Amino acid sequence: MVAAARRMPYEHIPCAAHMLQRTITICLEDSSFDTALAKCRKIVGHFKHSPASTEELHQQQAALGQAREPLIQDVSTRWNSTLLMVSRYLRNQEAVNTTLAQQKHNLATLTNLECVKLQKLEDVLEPCRYVTELLGGESYVSCSVVLPALCHLKRVMEPTDEDQGYMMKFKTTFLKDLDTRKANINNRWLKMATALDPRFKDLKSIPKDERDEVWTWLGEMLAEAGPAPAQPTEDEPAAKKSLLLLCSSDSDSDKEEPRLLARYKAEPCIGMRECPLEWWAAHTSAYGQLSSIARKYLATPATSVPCERLFSLAGNIIQKKRAALHSDNVNKLVCLSNWLKET
Fold first, then answer.
1. By C-alpha distance, which of 159, 115, 105, 153 is closest to 132?
2. Which contacts (CB < 8 Å, 24+ apart) does range 168-172 have?
3. Where are the domains of the chain?
4. Of 212, 214, 210, which is closest to residue 194 (Cα–Cα)?
């Protein structure tokens, strides 16, 4: 699929959510958390495979005034499941230990040091969970968010003097692997999208020595695109239409393009919850050709996760015993599944 994408006459943007999740998986495989995670998985599996043990756990939770919630088993193909497993276990650690003390089993319980390691792992993976859910959510996320999100993660994962040896190793491995994967993505496209996003146009997620180059690229694209065609309204007189045509000459366009960029750079950044596409739709008349370029870059999604979830849903509907379903019925079932999830 990657080789086919390279042969196609289109720009290729790798899925940022998959890239980040792969980095997390590699760091967990080569870290000092493996022993504590292995014990945690066996304890969780003990309760997941025994309804009687789960009921005893619920009784201990109720006695301690906690919510009756089951433990979570992590799965390699389910994102953030390791973090969810660790968080749920630590929250119910007292109830779990009390329940295991009343049972006969061959499980090795976690030591105090291993519990501290799991707590540190929970703290370091929480920012990754936030970014992964942001990039891999159901709603549309523009590729302009990728560089700011990765910049935030690199800042959070920077090793400190207070980190223990195993934390230092995890963070160092994480940053090294993330930098390697980041070098193989379409950085030019992502930088252009970041500059054209009114939320991140200050380019704080890009090194200072590379920011001028991004604006130079935009100026070159504006020069190649030429001036935007004038669109006068129907009630304008013919003389005014002629005047607009005369004003849009080649000699003026070279001066107007830098002015557009300077005016756009002077605009205040919008809030994080605002939609950049809506902002450009409201400022189309003010920026002309620049707004067309912005819509092109901002329309590129940061991830392929929503499409893959839709494929998985359709794959669960069309099975061997339901292979003769009509395409209209498949569409209706997919829509019903989405509607029921929203209710």
1. 153
2. 169/31, 169/32, 170/27, 170/31, 170/32, 170/33, 170/121, 170/124, 171/124
3. 10-185, 208-298, 305-342
4. 214
Token pair of 82 as six digits: 């390791």
Cα distance between residue 33 and residue 25, in whole Å = 12
3-class secondary-structure state, position 301: strand
Q: Which residue has the tokens 């005016």?
A: 263
Q: How far apart are the first and last CA of the chain?
A: 36
Cα separation, 18 vs 306, in Å, equals: 12
How confident is the model over 15-74, as pLDDT tens digits?
888 888 889 888 888 788 888 999 999 999 999 999 999 999 999 999 999 999 999 999
Phi, psi for residue 125 in degrees, rounded to 5: -90, -15
Angle formed at CA 226 by CA 222 and CA 229, multiple of 5 degrees: 120
Helix (H, G, I), strand (E, B) or coil at 56: helix
Rounded Cα distance between 68 and 54, Å, is: 10
- Give me 187's structure tokens: 């950085």
DSSP assignment letter at 322: G
pLDDT digit string, tens, across residues 129-176: 888 888 876 777 889 999 999 999 999 899 888 888 888 888 999 999
Is residue 121 within 8 Å of residue 115, measured between CB atoms?
no
Residue 282 CB-density burial (10 A; 0-12 exposed, 13-18 middle, 19+ buried): exposed
